[in-house]
C-alpha cells in the first residue's frame, strides 16, 4: 500500500463551553435550551451603552484548565475585539483573546501503548460564544436556500475556552485518544460537561500529510462540524486518504475547509470566500487587563486532581495498557480503586457488564460491588446481571443477590439430569453418534427446570460425564 | 417670577429646600422657557411631558440612555429607539431627585464640533442664532446658556463638553476618565468617552459631578473617586498654574481669544497664583492625528451593533448582509460613515501597526508629557477653543477644518485627564472659554481654581441679546 | 496618502456600508485628505514606547458568578424590527457561519 510512505500531521482546535452559572460578560443565566431569548439582557443583546463585565469564575476555570494542560499562565492577559458581521454576533464583534491569551504554551501527555505522546498546546484562551441561528424554510433545509433566519441569543455570551494544539498528532487514533483523555480531564476539573452531542465540546481538525522523514509541513485542510469522536476519526481518515490521493496523482493540496457529513461520511468543501478575513483585532477598551495573582494560580493548582494520563500509567503494570486506558478514559478508574477484589476481574466487570448496563460509576458503592464480583461465578447469570444493573441505586446491597447462589449440588442436579436424558432419548442418541452441539440443548433444559439457578459449569461437567457414560 | 436665564442650580435647590417655589413651578418655568426659545435654538430632541419627581430639572444629552424615553444619539438609525434600562448616570440623577426635562441635541453619535451633524437638524447658539453652539454637546450647552435648563449632562470624547461650554459661555467639566460610569451611554470611543456636567457655575458643576461620579460595578473601567469638595476659596494663593507654550502659540487661535485668555492669566497672578510656562510640544502637534486614529477605530467597532437585527432602523432587503449594509448606509449620516471608514481602515490588515498601533504609542507620549508638566504645576491653563462660535455651515464641507476645533481640548482627553471650561470674557461679542487641565482625579483642584477665577472675572453668562 | 476607489470599496465592505457611487467618490477624496493628515503620527520613532490602550491603570475587574434576572419577552422584543414567535427574525444568511 502506497500510503505506508505517508505520515499524517494533525492539529486540533477545541472549543469548550464552561459550566458557569452566568454568561461571560453579563449576569444572564446560562440556560440555552430554554424558551428562545428568555435569558437575555441589554448586554448580551448589545443594546446601545451596555458594557461587559468579566465573570470571575470563568477566569478561574480557564486558569485551571491551563494548568491541567501544562500551560504557562500569562502574568497579564488582554481581551480583544474580533470584528465581523453575522446575525448571531450582536455587537458586531466577538470579545476574545488575541496575542496575549490567558494560557500560553503547554504540553499534554497522552499515554499510548508504545510510550507517551506529548501533544504541544499552542494556547488556550477565553472568549464568548455566539448565539444560535435557526435557518427556516427554503429548499431542503440547506442554509443557502433558507427563507429566513431566526436568532436566539440565549447561548450568546456563554464562556468558551478555545484550545489550540500543535500539529503533533500522527493518526486519527491518536487524535481520538487525545480527545478522550482531554475530555476526561475537563470533566474531572468540573469546568464543563464537555459533551459533543450538546455542543459543549466542539472540535475542528487541521490535517495535512507528508512523506515520512520530511520535516516541514505541507498545506493543510480544516475539518469542521464533526460531532462525535468517531466522526472526527472518520473525517480525519477520509481527509488523509484524499490528500494522499491528490499528492500521488501529481496534484497539489490547496488550503480548504470541509464540513463532515455524518450521514454520508463524506467531506463537503466550503465554498471559497471572496476575500480574505480581516477581523481587525484590537484591545477591548471596555475591559481591563487580567493579571492572575500568584495566589489564584496556586489555589487552582492545589485543586487539580491527579491527571488521567498519570493514572493510566499507574494502573498499566497490573492491568495492561488497554484496560488501564479504558478505565481512565471512561471515568471508571475511581470506582476501580475503591472496589476490592481480583484486579483484572474487577477491571473486566467495570469495562464490560457495568459499562453495558450504563451504570454511573460515581454512584456505585465499591465494597458492595466487590462482594458481587467475588461471587460472580456462584450466582446465576441473570441474577448477576440484574445486580450489576442496580449497583448504582441508592442504598444498594449485594446481599439479597448473593443469597441466590447458583445450585451446584450434584446430589440435587444428578437425578434431575437423569430425568431429562430419559425424556429425550432421541437427542441423547444423536449426541452419542457425534452431534455434540446438542450439549447446549441439554444445558438449556436443565436451566429451564432450575429457573436458571444451576451453576452452568457443574451442569456441563455432569452432562458430559453422563452422556459419555 | 423665576428667571431661568440667571437662576443657578444651586439657587434652585435652595428655593426648593426653603419651599420658596414648588417643584412644579420650577418645572413650568423651564418648560415656558423651552416653549419660548427652543423653536429657535433647537436644543431638545425630545421632551418629557410630566415631571417624574419633585426636584430640580435637568437636561440630558441624547447619548445618555434613559429608560422609557427615546434615545437616538442624534441618529436616524436609532430613531424611535426606547431604552430598556437607565444609564448609571441617569439613575444616579433620578436617585438624587433630579427630574429629566428632555433629551438634548447632539452631533450624530457625538461625532462633531457644531451639532450640525445631528440627523435632526442643528442647534443654535443663544448668543447668536446664526452661529453654532459647538459640539457635540451643543444642545446641552445651548439649553443651559439659553435658560432652558438649570444644568445638563453632556459627554466628551475629544472636547464635546468643554468646547460647546466655551462657545456658549458656560461651565463644562470633562471628568477624569473612569470617574463617571459609561454604562448606558451610547458609545462613540470607549477609551475616551466620559460623561460630565454642563452648568452655569463652577459650584453647580461640582454639585452635579458629585452626583454622577463614582465606581460602577457595571462599568469595568471606573475607579474610586475622591470626595468632591464644593469650592469656597476666592483666591489662588499657592496654586501653580502652567501655561503650555505650544497651546497659546498654536496656529489658528484668534487674537480676541488670545487677549481674553491673557487677561485671565494676569488676573490669576493677581489672585496669588504662581504662573509659569511649560511644554507640551508633541501633545499639541500629534494629539489631533492621534485622536483621529484612535477614536474612529473604536467607533468603527462600537457602531457595528447597529445592524437592523434587534432594534433600530432596518432597510428592507431579502438577504442578511445586504440588509445590514443598506440599513447602515441609510441610517448613518456622513460623519459616522467617514469615521467608521477611517477607523476600519486604520485597524485593517497591513495598516494596523502604522496607524492604530502607532497612535497608541503616541498616546503614551502624550501621557508622559502631561505627567512631566504636572511635576511642576497643579493646573495647566489654555484657551478651550481656538475660535469663538462660528457661523452655521462655515465648516461643514471641510472635515479637517471642523476637526481642528478640538486642537486644544484633545491632548488631555488622550491622556485621560480632567478638563474644566470656565467662561473668561468676550471676543466680538461672543464668549471665550478658559480650559483648566488637572492630573488624574484632580477635579477638586480644577473646581477650586475655576471658582476663584469665575468670581474674580464676574463674567455675565446671560447672552447679551437675552438680557 | 491617496486612497483608491478599490480601497474605499474594500473598507466599505468590511464595515458593511452599502455606499452610493456619489459617496464612494466623495469619501475617497475626504479620506485621502484625512489619512494624509493623520499619517503624521508615523513621523515619530516610537519603537521603544509601549502602547496605551487605556488611560486608567486598572486590572482584574471581575464580577461574581451570580445570576440576575433577564429581560421579559416584552422587553426583549420592544424595539425589534421583526420577530417570529420568540425569535428575532432576519433575512436569510447566504453562507455558512464564519469563523
Ligand atoms: Zn445577558
List keywords for this structure.
heterotrimer; A: 469 residues; alpha+beta; Arc Repressor Mutant, subunit A; 3 domains; 8-stranded mixed beta sheet; 3-stranded antiparallel beta sheet; 14 strands; 36% helix; elongated; C: 99 residues; Histone, subunit A; two-stranded antiparallel ribbon; 3 helices; 32% helix; 8% strand; flat; binds zinc ion
Description of the molecule:
The complex is a heterotrimer of chains A (469), B (467) and C (99). Chain A is α+β, with helices and mostly antiparallel strands and 469 residues long. Chain A has 15 helices and 14 strands. In chain A, strands 5-6-9-1-10-11-12-13 form an eight-stranded mixed beta sheet. The model of chain A has no long low-confidence stretch (mean pLDDT 91). Chain B has a single domain, classed as Amidase signature (AS) enzymes, CATH 3.90.1300. Chain B contains 15 helices and eleven strands. In chain B, α6 (202-212) runs antiparallel to α15 (443-457) and α9 (281-302) crosses α11. The longest helix of chain B has 24 residues, at 353-376. Chain C has a domain at 1-44: Histone, subunit A (Orthogonal Bundle), CATH 1.10.20. The radius of gyration of chain C is 22 Å and the shape is flat. At the B-C interface, α9, α10, α11, α12 and α13 of B face α1 and α2 of C. β2 (54-55) of chain A pairs parallel with β1 (62-63) of chain C.
Fraction of residues of chain A in helices?
Answer: 25-40%
User: What is the CATH superfamily of chain B?
Assistant: Amidase signature (AS) domain
Indicate the radius of gyration of chain B in whole angstroms: 21 Å
Report strand order across the widest sheet of chain A. 5-6-9-1-10-11-12-13
Q: Give a short account of the largest sheet of chain B.
A: 11 strands, mixed
Q: What's the end-to-end separation of chain A, in Å?
A: 57 Å
Which secondary-structure class do the elements of chain A indicate? alpha+beta
**Chain pair with largest interface:** B-C, 70 and 51 residues
Structural class, from secondary structure content of chain B?
A: alpha/beta
- Our Rg estimate of chain A from Cα atoms comes to 29 Å
